[in-house]
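#structure-requests
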Amino acid sequence: LDTAMRLENYLKASGYRTVMTRRSDNFISLSRRAQIGNKYSDSIFVSIHYNYTWKRNARGLETYYHSSRSKPLADFVHEGMHSRVRAGDRGVKYARYYVLRNARNPAILVEAGFVSNYRDRVTMKKGDYRDKIARGVAEGIARYQSARRSGRVN
């Protein structure tokens, strides 16, 4: 939530209009999240997470997309995060996550590290790291929107 709120601040400072699915630490159903995102035509949907797995050595950044229309957004955002933080690169990947499958607009899900990995967990607890992730996502969104406006992506 902290990372998403930092991202919102950077996007608003750049002139973007934002809508948050939540502002406090309470659960919003996946269907409701997709519903909120779909209310706004010509928008993008960005879901930010910190990953967990039983594999303690898994670490690094991952960015997921579902539709081919969302892949350029995923690529730009992933590159933006990676330009800001030194973290393992787990890549941009296709996934069938509910919020991505049910999005009408370009949609991505960002995993900014693994809570289950000691090194990632120590790093993500630092506000500076979360700020760099937010800045990287904002820069990726700006580059994506610029490419979109110029017709280089749909």
